[in-house]
Hints:
The structure holds two protein chains of two kinds.
Chain A: E1 10-11, H1 25-44, E2 45-53, E3 65-68, E4 71-81, E5 87-94, E6 106-110, E7 113-114, E8 119-120, H2 123-127, E9 130-134, E10 144-146, E11 160-167, E12 178-181, E13 184-194, E14 201-208, E15 220-223, E16 227-232, E17 235-240, H3 243-248, E18 251-254, E19 270-274, H4 277-282, E20 289-294, E21 307-310, E22 313-321, E23 324-326, E24 331-333, E25 335-340, H5 342-347, H6 361-373, E26 376-384, E27 389-396, H7 420-437, H8 440-494, H9 499-527, H10 531-534
Parallel strand pairs in A: 2-10, 3-9, 11-19, 12-18, 15-19, 21-27
Antiparallel strand pairs in A: 2-5, 3-4, 4-5, 6-9, 7-8, 11-14, 12-13, 13-14, 15-18, 16-17, 20-25, 21-22, 22-25, 23-24, 26-27
Chain B: E1 4-6, E2 13-15, E3 22-23, E4 30-31, H1 38-58, E5 62-66, E6 69-73, H2 75-84, H3 88-118, H4 124-137, H5 143-154, E7 161-165, H6 167-185, H7 189-192
Antiparallel strand pairs in B: 1-2, 3-4, 5-6, 5-7
Helix pairs in contact in B: 1-3, 1-6, 2-3, 3-4, 3-6
Amino acid sequence: MSDAEIPEAHTAVHGARSRAWLLWIIPAVAALIGIWLVVQRMATHGPTITISFRGADGITPGRTVLRYKDVDVGTVASIRISREGEITVVADMTRDAEPFLVRDSRFWVVRPRISAGSVSGLGTLFSGAYISFTAGQSSEKATHFTGLEVPPFDTEGLAGREFVLHASDLGSLEVGSPVLFRRVKAGEIVSYQVDPTGRGVTLKAFIDAPFDRFVSRDTRFWQASGFDVSLDSEGFRLQTQSLAAILDGGVAFESPPETTLEQPADVGSQFDIFGSRTDAMKRPYQESQLYRVYFAESLRGLSAGAPVDVHGIVIGEVARFGLEYDSKKGIFRFPVEFNVYPQRLRERYLDGVEQATVDSVKDHRELVNRLVKAGMRAQLKTGNLVTGQLYIGLDFFPKAPAAVIDWNTPQPVMPTVPGGLSALTDTLGDIATKIDAMPLDQIGSQLLADEQALNVAIKSTAGLVDHLNSDVAPEAKRALASAREALNAAQAALAADSPLQGNLSDTLKQLSRAAQALTDLSDFVEQHPESLIRGNRADPQ
Amino acid sequence: MSVFVACQRCGQLARRVATPSMACPRCGTRLFLRKPASLQRTLAYLIAAAVLYIPANLLPIMHTATIQGDEDDTIMSGVLVLIHSGSWPLAALVFFASIMVPILKLLALSVLLLAARFRWRDHAHALGRLYRLVEFVGRWSLLDIYVLTLLVALVQLQALATIEPRAGAVAFAMVVILTILAARSFDPRLLWDPPPAGGGAR
């Protein structure tokens, strides 16, 4: 190709306007974009905070995140160790987190926690631990915090209410233990601490809605930890809660049946945790009367909480028992105090029967006075022959010696009678005592002396008999023989054909004729009384 | 000045005409003896790239949400992760392609700009090779962005793992593109142009 073949360039349609200045828009835009990105980054970049922990287990700088309500709001930038060995975690927070970083915000490390009741922090199994925190109420900003070793419970924003529970000890409860309502999980224990006095443990329980409305003022809480095994006068009982509670412990609550829900408990209401459901449900009877009884028999087998019943209806329980010194008599006595809940008796009235009116203390006293007059006595009874557990029975013994209750003491003394089995023992004892008291030795020696005297008597008797035999008997025989002869003679004389008999018969005939003649004479004299004077004349006619 | 002018698009050689602007007789592309405002253009792109280089390295380019937790990775932290996991060659490659190459390109373009501006003709040959290297290597810096787009598209396992691009990736991509544009707008012929009679830069 030669130069001549090279075509000429065409003339461009558009003019070659210089727009070089437009080029500078590019770096300007780039700068704007860059600034915008950086500003945006800075906007989400919040304060840097420090949190001190006792240990840094699972915390990795650059990896461990800080979460608020499970949202990442920061990253651990570095971990420092002070000379004292305290771990300080430096964390970069996002701007979103700033409002929550106040003086009483609480930080803790979330690690996987697997218990029978729940599995939490499962994500941390793979991701490692993270730091979680709750916002405080304070308005004062803070940049340094002290981390908690035990995770608190974040109730903020959850529907439900928190209540305060008191227990004598923690049992197997811990933070996160379930709170059960009719064995449905209704909440959980959110915190616990030993009372400042050291006399118990105060727990906080959070009851989720809608269960929280079942907590009324007289709701009872009890330890649902594991098995509730009891051995008392009612025998052997085993109660369990849900399986999770068996393994993990928990608190159950329930309201007494007569409770209405119109009085829901206020937030932060205080409740006691009872040892068992039975204990817990026993207590709703506020109306109670304490009685004291003195039993003569041994109290072995009686325990506080043992039932007090009337014909098998439990109306109270043994409160306590001990001993007291009666200085007047110089003896120890063993008082037993028991509570009677009149309400329990009232509940048992069937419809349509006459009810004892016990509306007031006065009524109650009158009723009891009447009952005692009618023979009501307390009696120690054996509830379980195998275990020997005792209970107190109130029963009627109309023949019991009269007694009255003195109401002027805080613990009126209820009259007692010896209990069934012990009454038998007592009677046997009495018999034994009486037998014991008999002068058996004396009786024995007396008997011996008597016997000797008897011997002498017997001997003289024998002599008498001999004498009778030898002297009296032949004489008597002769007497008898002559007596027989006399009788024989009499018989012979009296025989029909005997001469005496014939003579007698003739005599009687003569006598009979004489009597006839006499009769005729008397008749004649009657008809002819003048004959006595004139003599017998012939018939005048 | 030469009599001919070559078309930058189709290579057609054309005879110059005395008009303010010429066009290729074959493909119609506008013809220049030298790219107009080449240095200004390059400088503008270069500044823009340099400005964006800062957020590109400081801001996270990638957000990884896995069951292990959420994580934001900058280019440098990605390199560190690779080092920690023992992938030395890969770490070196990423470090070279994503951190060294852009900065070297920025430096090289600056050198070229200075050379063209101040007519360092003694090193014209070496500078020409530098220019070719810059132009060749430019696109490889987008490797990171390429990998990232693949990851973002593929790793969408919802709860298990999700990867999202972050602002740093945008800045980084813009840096790479701007350096490519800067290299393209640079007219290497300026490197060997003789000093103009007037003594000023064209």
